[in-house]
């Protein structure tokens, strides 16, 4: 839960160039994209997202989409993995493929002079991956190594345990990496099926930033994505959150207990979302002045850092967070967390609201710091349903939040009785009662 989620904070604290002109492009073949033209440097950053991600794993095939994604740069068409890498490097192109609960992400950077050849190479990776036996075993081994490492990582254990409690039988409840057994059992046919399920034109979102015109982008999109299936596998339905108050302890030999917590959140299109975002910044945001940081770190020295954040998955919404503390102080730290959660339901002070607004509006320009980050943010905006003029209006929405708004959303959102806390370690002085 903590490791991979759509980084909504980056959408709510982003552009350096708030005046950027975002163009809505439709290719001759009907594919849509957002474009920011920037001809100052001869390269283009391209970001492609396919909605669905590891949630599209077929029953009994957990980890298939993740394994498939890791194989996309391991050879395509007539090129094996080595030849593909040599060709990519010879073009000075960069490709990255990743999967998460809700999407498969493709990031590309290509020089203008090599754009045609680089786009063709990327097209082959997306539409004609080889999935050679030796590559499958190599990437399978890498995935298994990650799974084994996560089995010994208290943070990963905490997130996995909290997911299992929160999401029941939904795909979100288990790791998209799969288990050792499920990944060992995956066949090439399973990987091919995952490719067809996840990479399709009916769920694609695209942004481009750099040295490319709308006409050039439209032609590139049709060439790059036109060969993919028109439709993919059905998306999973909404996750039914099953969160009740209390503490779950996972006994694990580690000197630092990891504390993860979550309760139901708020949908991104809720009218109170901006107020909830500001409220979270006050309670557990990035600043050292947040309540959790002040109470847990500055006043009591119980942790190096504590965070909370609103999580906007496609099929569930959470207010969650995490910190680590010594096993001997775990009980005290959890008591402080509960007390601050209850206090958050009562609202905030005018001084806290003013400080949060200053930080959020001031930090806003610092995130939009390059073509690649801009492209990623624009795709995230599209997938989240934000309007194309969001960058010009975001700070106004933050400034418009009032104390009454915070009070209303605090009473509505903060639910101490549904705050589930997971502690991984050997904590002392801890009550598991709600």
Structure, described:
It is a single chain. Helix content is 41%, strand content 18%. The chain has 434 residues and is of the alpha+beta class. It has a 6-stranded mixed β-sheet. Helix 10 crosses helix 13 (350-363). Mean pLDDT is 93; it is low at 1-18.
Descriptive key words:
single chain; alpha+beta; Cytochrome Bc1 Complex, Chain A, domain 1; 2 domains; 11 strands
Give a quick precis of the structure.
By secondary structure, the protein is α+β, with helices and mostly antiparallel strands. It contains 16 helices and eleven strands.
Structural class given helices, strands, pairing? alpha+beta
Classify the helix fraction into a percent range: 40-55%
Percentage of β-strand residues: 15-25%
Total domain modules: 2
* Distance between the amino and carboxyl termini: 22 Å
Please work out how many helical segments DSSP would assign. 16
Query: Given the C-alpha coordinates, what overall shape results?
Result: globular
How is the secondary structure organized here?
Layout: H1 8-12, E1 23-26, E2 32-37, E3 43-51, H2 64-70, H3 81-90, E4 94-99, E5 103-111, H4 115-127, H5 133-150, H6 154-167, H7 180-185, H8 188-198, E6 204-210, H9 214-225, E7 246-251, E8 256-264, H10 273-284, H11 291-298, E9 306-312, E10 317-326, H12 330-344, H13 350-363, H14 371-384, H15 390-399, H16 403-413, E11 420-425
Parallel strand pairs: 2-6, 7-11
Antiparallel strand pairs: 1-2, 3-5, 3-6, 4-5, 8-10, 8-11, 9-10
Helix pairs in contact: 2-8, 4-9, 10-13, 10-16, 11-12
């Amino acid at each position: 839960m903590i490791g991979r989620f759509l980084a909504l904070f980056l959408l709510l604290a982003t552009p350096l160039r708030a005046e950027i002109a975002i163009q809505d492009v439709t290719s001759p073949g009907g594919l849509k994209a957002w474009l920011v033209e920037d001809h100052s440097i001869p390269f283009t950053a391209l970001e492609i997202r396919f909605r669905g991600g590891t949630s599209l794993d077929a029953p009994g095939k957990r980890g298939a989409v993740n394994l498939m994604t890791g194989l996309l740069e391991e050879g395509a068409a007539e090129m094996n993995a080595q030849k593909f890498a040599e060709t990519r490097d010879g073009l000075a192109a960069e490709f990255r493929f990743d999967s998460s609960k809700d999407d498969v992400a493709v990031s590309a950077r290509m020089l203008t002079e090599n754009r045609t050849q680089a786009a063709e190479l990327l097209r082959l990776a997306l539409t004609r991956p080889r999935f050679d036996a030796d590559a499958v075993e190599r990437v399978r081994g890498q995935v298994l190594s990650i799974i084994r490492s996560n089995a010994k990582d208290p943070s990963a254990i905490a997130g996995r345990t909290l997911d299992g409690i929160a999401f029941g039988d939904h795909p979100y409840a288990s790791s998209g990496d799969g288990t050792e057994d499920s990944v060992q059992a995956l066949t090439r046919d399973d990987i091919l099926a995952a490719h067809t399920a996840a990479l399709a034109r009916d769920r694609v979102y695209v942004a481009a930033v750099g040295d490319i015109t709308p006409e050039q982008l439209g032609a590139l999109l049709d060439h790059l994505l036109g060969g993919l299936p028109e439709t993919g596998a059905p998306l999973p339905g909404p996750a039914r959150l099953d969160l009740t108050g209390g503490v779950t302890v996972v006994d694990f030999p580690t000197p630092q207990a990891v504390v993860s917590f979550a309760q139901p959140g708020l949908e991104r299109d809720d009218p109170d979302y901006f107020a909830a975002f500001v409220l979270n910044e006050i309670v557990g945001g990035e600043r050292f002045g947040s309540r959790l940081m002040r109470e847990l770190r500055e006043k009591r020295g119980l942790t190096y850092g504590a965070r909370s954040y609103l999580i906007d998955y496609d099929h569930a919404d959470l207010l969650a967070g995490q910190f680590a503390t010594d096993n001997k102080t775990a009980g005290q730290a959890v008591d402080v967390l509960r007390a601050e959660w209850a206090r958050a339901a009562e609202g905030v002070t005018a001084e806290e609201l003013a400080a949060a607004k200053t930080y959020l509006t001031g930090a806003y320009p610092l995130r939009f710091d390059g073509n690649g980050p801009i492209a990623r943010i624009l795709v995230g905006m599209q997938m989240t349903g934000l309007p194309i003029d969001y960058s010009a209006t975001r700070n106004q929405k933050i400034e418009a939040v009032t104390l009454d708004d915070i009070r209303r959303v605090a009473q509505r959102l903060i639910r101490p009785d549904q705050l589930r806390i997971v502690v991984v370690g050997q904590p002392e002085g801890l009550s598991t009662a709600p």
